[in-house]
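Researcher: I'd like a structural prediction for the single chain below. Treat it as a standalone chain; there are no partners to consider.
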Amino acid sequence: MYKKPTKAIITDAGFASRYLPITKTIPKAMLPLGNRPIMQFVVEECAEAGIEEIIIVATHEGKPIYEDYFNNSVNRIRKQLASQGKEDRYAPIQQVLDFPKIVVIEQDPAYPYGNGSPIASARPFINDDEAFVVAYSDDVVFGSSDMKTLIESYERHPDAKAIIISQEMPREVLDKYGIIRLKDEAAMTLDNIVEKPAIEDAPSNLTSYGRYLLTPEVFAHLDPKNTGLDGELWTVDAITKMAESGEVYVERTKGEWMTTGDPKNYFMAHLKYTLDNDDFGDEIRNFVNNYKEN
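Model: Treating it as a single chain, here is the predicted structure.
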C-alpha cells in the first residue's frame, strides 16, 4: 500500500537521432504542436490529474532549455505587450509559469541507454512510501488525461504493483508496437508485453505506450545489471518482472494516443491537432482538400 501519486516523472533524455540535425540544438519534446511544445501537452496532462511536482529528465543540453521555458517570465516581453495594449497575449506565458512545481534534472550518465534509465535517474525524488506516474514525452494524448485515468485506477486497485495505459490498435499495425498479453481478461491484469510480434502471433490488439503508474518496487528492477534487448534498460522489462510477483493492471485510454517519436508520426499528430483546432481547423482542412484536388 503506497500513497496516491502526487509526483510525475516525464522523460526526454534521448538523442532523438531520427530528428537530426534539429535535435542537436532543440530537445525533441520542445518541437511544437501549434504554439505549444509537445512537453507542455504532457505537463498539462499532469496538472489536470492534480499532480503537485513534475520531474523532467533531460539531456545535459536540454536541461537549461526546459528550465528557461518553464521558469523564465520574460518581463521585457510582458512590458512591451503592456505598452502596446496587448496584455492578453501574455496569458499563455502566465499559464506556463502557473504550472505545478517543475524540477529539471539530467539523466545519470552511469546508467546505460534505454527508456528505463531516466526513470531510475529520478529515484532521489521519489519517497519509499509513494506511488508515482511516468510519461514519455514523445507520446501525446488528445481528449483526456491518461495521468488522471491512472490515479483513478489506483484508487480502485490499491494492491497494484503498477498500472499501465493501453490503446486498441488495428490488426495490421500490431507488429510495430509492444502488445499486451493479459493474465486475466476480466480483471485486466498483465501477464507480459510482447515487443513487435508477428501479426499472427499478437496476443491481443492492446498496445502499451509511455503512460505508467509505478511503485518504488520498480527501482529494484531498473538496475544497470538488468539490461535487455540491445543492451538497453527497458521499463517494460521492469514492469513485467513486477507482474510476476503481484498485480499489474491495464487500463484503456479515454483519449487518443499518438506518438511523435519520428518525423512522420510527429507530422500526423501535428496535423490532427491543427485540424481539431476551433480557430483555424476548417481553414486548414479546406487548404488540404484544395491541395489534393490540384
